[in-house]
Amino acid sequence: MEKPANSSIINICVIPSVSVGDAYVSLSQSLKSDDTLFVLGDGKFAHMTVYMARFADDAVNDVVAAARRVLQRTTPFRCEHIGYFMTAGRYLEASYRKSDAFMALHEALIDAVSQYRINPGQPYEEGYFTPYTAEQRHNAEQTGYDLARNLYRPHVTLTRYREGGVPQIFPALPAAALSFDLGKVCIYRADDNGAVYELIREYPITQ
């Protein structure tokens, strides 16, 4: 299937606190090598996807309005850092606890926003994490997001390694001081790799 014309990937994501975001840039920069394809701080910044899918460009205003209704009801909760994970696609991620509050926000955004996605039931297979497994395909068909629901894992991506370039031994990575209280959710356009690049809306999350 060809990529749908006049469409964009929309990423609704949590933005860490300033201090945690700065810590992630420093950490990611320390990993930079000939084997890394990108690091934070070189035009990229720390963010945590909550829901992401492809939409027709003329549906983006509906997406923003639907997300706003969810986010206006959202209150702060703790985003708890629990370690690191290397994906099969060679992405190094900082992992966060899949808490009830996190999953409630994830599901609320799916319920409110996914109805506007392009080609419901017959999604274009995005290139940022392919080929799809059967469960990814099912999630993409149901929600527009291949890593939704059971496959959803809150995380901040630190870097991606070239094929054959994943280190056998990693440097020591910090185990603390990367948790934060949810304070801001943003809606971005993302490129074909899922990396955000254009801010559409920003929402503070308050009591």
Characterise this structure.
The protein is of the alpha+beta class and 207 residues long. It has one domain (7-204): Cyclic phosphodiesterase (Cyclic Phosphodiesterase, Chain: A). Helices cover 24% and strands 29% of the residues. It is built from four helices and ten strands; from the N terminus they run E-H-E-E-H-E-E-E-H-H-E-E-E-E. The protein has helices spanning 18-30, 60-71, 100-113, 134-143, and strands spanning 7-14, 36-39, 48-56, 78-79, 81-86, 91-96, 155-161, 180-181, 184-190, 196-204. It has a four-stranded antiparallel β-sheet with strand order 3-1-9-10. A four-stranded antiparallel β-sheet has the order 2-7-6-5, with helices on one face. Strand 9 (184-190) and strand 10 form a beta hairpin. Helix 2 packs antiparallel against helix 3. The N and C termini lie far apart (44 Å). The model has no long low-confidence stretch (mean pLDDT 92).
Task: Give the N-to-C terminal Cα separation.
Answer: 44 Å
Q: Cα-atom Rg, whole angstroms?
A: 17 Å
Number of helices: 4
Which strand order does the major sheet show? 3-1-9-10
Determine and state the CATH class.
Answer: Alpha Beta
Secondary-structure class: alpha+beta
CATH architecture: Alpha-Beta Complex
CATH topology: Cyclic Phosphodiesterase, Chain: A
Contiguous runs where pLDDT drops below 50 for at least 5 residues: none
Q: Beta fraction of the residues?
A: 25-35%
- The CATH homologous superfamily is termed Cyclic phosphodiesterase
